[in-house]
Design brief:
Elements lengths: L1 E6 L2 E7 L15 E13 L6 E4 L8 H11 L7 E4 L20 E3 L5 E3 L2 H12 L3 E6 L36 H19 L1 H5 L2 E4 L13 H18 L4 E7 L5 H16 L14 E7 L3 E3 L2 E3 L2 H16 L8 E8 L20 H21 L2 E8 L16 E2 L2 E2 L1 H10 L4 E7 L5 H7 L7 E8 L3 E9 L10 E8 L7 E7 L6 H12 L6 H7 L2
Parallel strand pairs: 3-21, 4-5, 4-15, 5-8, 8-9, 9-10, 10-11, 11-14, 14-15
Antiparallel strand pairs: 1-21, 2-20, 2-22, 3-18, 6-7, 12-13, 16-17, 18-19, 19-20
Helix pairs in contact: 3-5, 7-8, 7-10, 8-9
Length: about 525
């Protein structure tokens, strides 16, 4: 079978081996040739894409948060994993940008622990009701346990506002009380959801301890925090999965050195909680980010930066024999580092509303699979740090999957990925780009990255094709593509094509058209900036 078409950005071809087949006409312009050989089946393609995360945990049970979580749960039969910050942070439960709280732990006047799981339960109940799994981030430090407790910060103007408490990034003043908090949390979860359910969760210790914003302690103090946390989790549920260290990019100085010292401690260090040598570790986590820039008014992405971080993390893990087979979860894997930094304040983030975020996600996800195969590591999850921002202006330019209940183009990529099941299939492309060239140089020349990821299950096949360039998509031309699929059964087949481009699966383009049709005299940049602010 040969299918030819112009590929503006992203296309997914789903073939069901049962009914009929309709061909698309071949373009006269010489296309990029993509070949898919269904006869060359490789290893199963794990659904590593089904991990999502966000800072504002309190958005979980709000109106648009519940709607989006329901949509994520419906992407495929695979259970989606959800990670959120601030699960133990003190506060009144009112969210703000990059802020949330549960007030799970306080102390009475005699210093006796008081546990309150009401908000935590509201969050986890929302996940469980939708068949999702918490990727439990154990943090941050409750005010009553912090070595540096303080008052409410200046952001809290009134009792109605969200209250940002200081002290949340510091080590505990009492590690045994901290361990007791973790132990009680795990036991409570088992009581509420059942042992079999909680056994399927990941318990991950803290977030980016190599950054002083998130961790005010030393690396040794983080190791101690991890030891006590892991010991508490395992005492409550010996079969639980616990891991870390959830550091920043391994190819950076802070992230690379930090993850190495942590893994060395796990393998050969003395456990601070037990006094014995060795520390429980069931999975390894780190972050990887791209780095977009604004050049002469045009956004240039930098996928190479993200792929180098991923590859370095894989290299570090694969170099340690005792750990090389452990599952790896890239706890945040994104085009850049701040989901709550809106486009109007950070113009380099203008890629987020349209198709660029979508095609970047497809291409980088496929390249992540390639790098894991190259390094021979066990890739278990890739967390997209993007959710939604409740009651913000439409298409404000946050790194999110939906805006005020409207799905953005990037969410449709995950719908495509949710259709890809079974084994990975051998593919070829005449495009000059591959995962190694992009890792080393990103996509900066004249040639775009036109490539494919394909799968085959018992009675279907899926072919994901993308057209990516670091330069913003509004300035890049479509590419003619010819897709040849070898190995189809000798019977009629049904072909369905899904497209994400300027005119398809693109709520942002439709919204702009709708707005401008109603404001014919105000089509100017100044007004547009006011509109989305």
């Amino acid at each position: 079978m040969r299918i030819s078409f112009f590929l503006p950005l992203l296309s997914c071809i789903i073939i069901l081996w049962t009914v009929s087949f309709t061909s698309y006409g071949q373009e006269k312009i010489p296309p990029v040739s993509v070949k898919v050989n269904l006869l060359q089946s490789q290893a199963p393609l794990p659904p590593v894409w089904e991990f999502f995360g966000y800072d504002e945990a309190n958005y979980t049970y709000m109106k648009d948060g519940r709607k989006l979580l329901s949509e994520l749960a419906a992407l495929s039969p695979v259970r989606v994993n959800i990670r959120a910050h601030n699960m133990l942070t003190s506060g009144n439960g009112i969210p703000g940008l990059k802020w949330s709280s549960t007030n799970a732990y306080t102390e009475d006047k005699n210093g006796k622990p008081v546990y309150n799981w009401k908000i935590v339960d509201s969050i986890f109940d929302t996940y469980i009701q939708r068949g999702m799994k918490p990727l439990v981030e154990v943090g941050f430090m409750p005010e009553a346990l912090s070595t540096t407790p303080g008052s409410v910060t200046e952001q809290a103007a009134t009792d109605k506002s969200n209250k940002h408490y200081s002290g949340w990034a510091y080590p505990p003043k009492d590690y045994k009380k901290w361990a007791a908090l973790v132990y009680q949390w795990v036991k409570h979860s088992i009581q509420r959801y059942g042992k079999a359910e909680v056994e399927g969760w990941y318990w991950e210790v803290w977030n980016e301890p190599d950054l002083s914003f998130y961790w005010k302690g030393t690396p040794e103090e983080y190791n101690k925090l991890y030891d006590y946390t892991a010991d508490a989790v395992k005492r409550a549920l010996p079969t639980a999965k616990v891991g870390g260290p959830e550091t920043t990019s391994p190819d950076g100085k802070s992230g690379g050195e930090y993850i190495r010292q942590f893994l060395t401690h796990v393998v050969s260090g003395i456990n601070n909680a037990t006094g014995k040598r060795g520390v429980p570790l069931d999975f390894i986590s780190f972050h990887a980010k791209g780095s977009p820039k604004l050049v002469d008014g045009v956004v240039w992405m930098n996928m190479g930066n993200q792929l180098r971080s991923i590859d370095k993390g894989f290299e570090i893990v694969s170099s340690i024999p005792a750990l090389k087979n452990l599952p790896i979860i890239i706890g945040e894997s994104d085009p850049e580092g701040c989901a709550a930094c809106s486009e109007d304040l950070h113009p380099e983030n203008a890629y987020r509303n349209g198709t660029m975020y979508a095609v970047y996600t497809a291409a980088s996800m496929s390249r992540t699979y390639d790098l894991a195969k190259k390094r021979g590591v066990n890739l278990a999850g890739v967390v997209t740090w993007g959710f939604e921002f409740e009651d913000q202006p439409y298409f404000k330019g946050f790194r999110d999957l939906a805006t005020n209940g409207i799905d953005k183009p990037v969410l449709n990529v995950f719908r495509m990925l949710g259709m890809m099941r079974g084994n990975r299939i051998a593919t070829e492309s005449t495009s000059m780009q591959n995962y190694m060239t992009i890792r080393d140089s990103s996509v900066r020349g004249q040639e775009p990255d036109v490539n494919t990821l394909a799968t085959k299950s018992a009675h279907s096949a899926a072919v994901l094709v993308w057209n990516y360039h670091d330069k913003n998509d509004i300035n890049f031309r479509p590419t003619p593509v010819s897709v040849t699929i070898k190995g189809l059964p000798q019977q009629r087949v049904l072909l369905t094509r899904y497209i994400i481009d300027q005119g398809n699966s693109n709520s942002f383009a439709a919204w702009k058209k709708w707005v401008l049709q109603r404001l014919p005299r105000q089509r100017n940049i100044k007004y547009w900036k006011l509109l989305v602010s």
